[in-house]
Structures are given as C-alpha cells and as structure tokens.
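We modelled the chain as a single entity of 83 amino acids. Its sequence is:
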Amino acid sequence: MQALIKLCLRENPVKTTTNDQLRDAQQALEWWLCSHAEAGVPELALIEVLRTYADTIEYIGYVPRSWGPDTQRERFRGREREQ
C-alpha cells in the first residue's frame, strides 16, 4: 500500500494537508484490518471485502457516503466480469 500511495503522489502531487489525510486513512485502514484479523476474521474474507469495495468505487467513480442497496456487491461484480 505504501508503494501505491507513493506512486499516486508522484504522478499527482498534492498539498501537505492531503498527504496527512492519506497517511491517516492508511493508518485507519491498517488498524481496521489488524483488529479484524486478530478478532478471528479470515484474511481471505478481509481481502474479498477490500476487493469488493475497490470494484464498487472503481465502477461508480467515487466513494459513496453511504453503502445502501444501490452500492451492493451484486451490482458491481467487476472482477468477475473481467475473468
């Protein structure tokens, strides 16, 4: 993830505030992943959650502010369409 963030920053330089926000978001995501893995959630399940959200965000082009029926996984099965 660090490499991806660095690549994005190199291609699209951003101001310091946004760099701090990216770091904070990364740390929050790492905490979420670690805490759920430690609680016994299988790592493959966590990976699938990340892929599903990434597919949805890529398909609709933005991060929804809520995840209701219009953003359900069944509507955005991008990875499965590509295979």
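As a brief sanity check on the tokenised model: Residues 42-83 form one domain. The radius of gyration is 15 Å.
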